[in-house]
Sequence to fold (170 residues):
Amino acid sequence: MNSIEKGSMKRGDFLRSLGLSTSTLMAFYCLGTTMTACGSKDDDPNPDPDPDPGSGGNGVSGTTTGNNINFTVDMTKSPYTDLKTAGTGRVIGDVLVALPTTGSYVALSKICTHEGNTVGYRKNQNDIQCPVHQSEFTLTGAVKQGPAVNPLKTYTVTVSADGNTLTVKA
Ligand code: FES
Fold:
């Protein structure tokens, strides 16, 4: 760039025109600014309570995705406390965990066998539905209504004696 017309160039464009690297540019941006992306974790007014959603976040430990599902859920921790209430369901990793009636947990693949969208538990119908093309499944994973033709994979789910910890296994 040969000439810079005063007032016509943004700060970033000007700095880039000087040939500075991206990291150097970020240092310039952060100096003397209040950009939250540059602040420390302590500065964040809305800290992410679920920094690792792939593993299910706080309260979940183990493998929640893929072919070797094997995890525990601490239902004394938010947001999993709702899994103690009959008529609730929650997706954790690749798994839909539901409590249709008190003490009778079910765990199934969240991945619809039609085209792979995420299914959900329906309290009123007491079943599982894919909201994309309306396939319906029983709580044992069987197809109630297509277009899906194959059942949902099911997992073994057990609850601890104190009712606070779920274990889900393939
Ligand atoms: S992806 Fe679930 S019904 Fe089509």
